[in-house]
Amino acid sequence: MAEENADIGGTIEDEDEGSDDPNLPLELNTFRAQWMSELKLSSGANELSGRLLRAKGLKKTQDIAREEKATELFLRAVQEEQNGAVYEAIKFYRMAMQLVPDIEFKINYSRPPDTDRGGGKYMDNNVDGEIEDLLAYFEEELTLESSFPKICTPELDLTQMHISALPREILMYIFRWVVSSDLDMRALEQLSLVCRGFYICARDPEIWHLACVRVWGRNCTKLVPFKSWREMFLQRPRVRYDGVYISKTSYIRQGEESLDGFYRAWHHVEYYRYLRFFPDGHVVMLNTPEDPLLVVPRLRTKNIRMDSVLLGHFRLSQETDNQTKVFAVVCKKKEKATEFQRNRFCRRNPPPPEAEHSFHVGMHLCSGGRQTFSKLVWIHHSCHTTYKLTGETVITAFDLDSMYTPFFFARVKSYTAFSEQPL
Description:
This protein has helices at about 1-15, 25-80, 85-100, 135-145, 170-180, 185-190, 195-200, 205-215, 230-235, 290-295, 340-345, and strands spanning about 245-255, 265-275, 280-290, 310-320, 325-330, 355-370, 370-385, 395, 405-410. The protein is an alpha+beta fold and about 425 residues long.
């Protein structure tokens, strides 16, 4: 093509040798140079676009290969998990998500029927993304599988009695022991993850109704505006029993002046308030400078051997402004002396107090951070002094200043580690 252009140019020059215009050769050379530069630019642009297309195709091919490898690793992790090799499954899950972070949403996988005899096929490509009523879905599956459905089916052949052979009434009684008198509904929710049958039993309305009655009393008979007793227990404001509410207060106090008058000491004072609620309506209140690591284990039961502890009762109140408040009355624990102590040490025993002190506390219950019902804000604090001789009661109300910091909930696992009584 360049030779043809040169021939064409030469022909034009030969033909123009006889022309009278002296500027014509210069114009032809300028036109020829501009034409060659445009040809070079167009060839360079085509080469650049080709490179970009090849790069995009290579990247797409790499993405497809990476996704295929991640899919293979993810399916292998699912298989390892079904076989019980949890650690191997976690390793393959991690490798798959390092290649494609959202690989679990990009694949369709099915579980073989023999891995879960009651499971059938599981596909993650539902029309709505999730099953709206999982309880009804599980009940329907159990009904379709057998005319006499069982709560669960043993995965392996056993020589001993399996829990599925127990009547449902006995199984529900076991579930009530799991919840226990401490209302450990968290353990019930974890138990529902075992299988479909346990999920159905854990959603039994009677268990959740009993839990609601323990929290709000026997007047709790209506579900409105909630759809179920479980929804009421989870969403209606209430105090929590599986931990302790802690308030930390610190301030600077001025000390005494030195003898020479050159300096005055300042003290940093720090102490804690603890509130521990029990499902039977009792409450324990404690003010102490001791660290929570030392105090929290002692608050597991109501029988606390500490001189400064206050015992009492509490109640929940829902006002017209749709705010839930907690009111408690606490007083110092009364110690009863035995008959031997009264006879032997009658002269050493201190005289009975002339007045009794009780403290009335009011709190506003709200949610703080991610946890629900985890914050208590002071709204009232007073001391009621009753004189035994006259029967007169004097009420002293305290000003709620910056020293009354709010309480925040901290869950304690040891409080619900043992079941002493069923629900």
